[in-house]
Amino acid sequence: MPLLTLLPLGIAILVEKKIPGITFFRTSFYLPVIASAVVVALLWNLVLDDGGVVNNIAQSLKWVRGPIPFLTDRWLVVFSSISLTVWKGLGYYMVIYIAALGNVSKDLHEAAALDGAGAWRRFWSVTVPGVRGAMILVAIMICVSALRIFTEPYFLTNTTGGPGGYASSFVMIIQQYARGLLGNLGYASALSVVLFFVCLIPMLILARQNRKES
């Protein structure tokens, strides 16, 4: 979660600058957001498969002797699923940060620069406090999205959840219990209720934070 909270902020700061060609990079980062999650997951599957693009390049360059088991190793499949989720959501949260950065006064940056503050100091003392509300919003949205995620790990692991089900999300577990005529619908319903209340907690935190700021 910290990665997906801070990384879009860094990218937003970079693409916010008014330089030639920056629109192309903004579009490139946002493109995965508007792409179908199913298509993206299947594409990621092809890229990370034992005979996929990554393994072919790595083996052709003699970096590895055999294919890297991105989708068959229980830990690497979790890493692959996280990477896919980060890549898919990066552009969405970047847009939120771009909007928040527009509300940070440039006078504060100029004043800090005149006082001798470097770029790193201005980032922590001016930018981060200025986008604090957006950071809380993004963090909570990431929490809820992580709990509700289904499509990406489902299709990335060919509906299996990976070796031993290590990459199975909470929603995938619910779907597995509810699937078929002999599914345990009662247990699946109970898990759904638990998921609802767990997702409700960060939303209540966000609502309380908004009341404080208002």
Structure description:
This protein is mostly helical and 214 residues long. It has helices at residues 2-16, 22-34, 37-48, 53-60, 74-101, 106-114, 119-130, 132-148, 151-156, 170-178, 185-213. The chain has one domain (1-213): MetI-like fold. 74% of the residues lie in helices and 0% in strands.
What is shown here, in short?
By secondary structure, the chain is mainly α. The protein has 11 helices and no strands. The chain has helices spanning 2-16, 22-34, 37-48, 53-60, 74-101, 106-114, 119-130, 132-148, 151-156, 170-178, 185-213.
Topology:
Elements: H1 2-16, H2 22-34, H3 37-48, H4 53-60, H5 74-101, H6 106-114, H7 119-130, H8 132-148, H9 151-156, H10 170-178, H11 185-213
Helix pairs in contact: 1-5, 1-8, 2-5, 5-8, 6-7, 8-11, 10-11
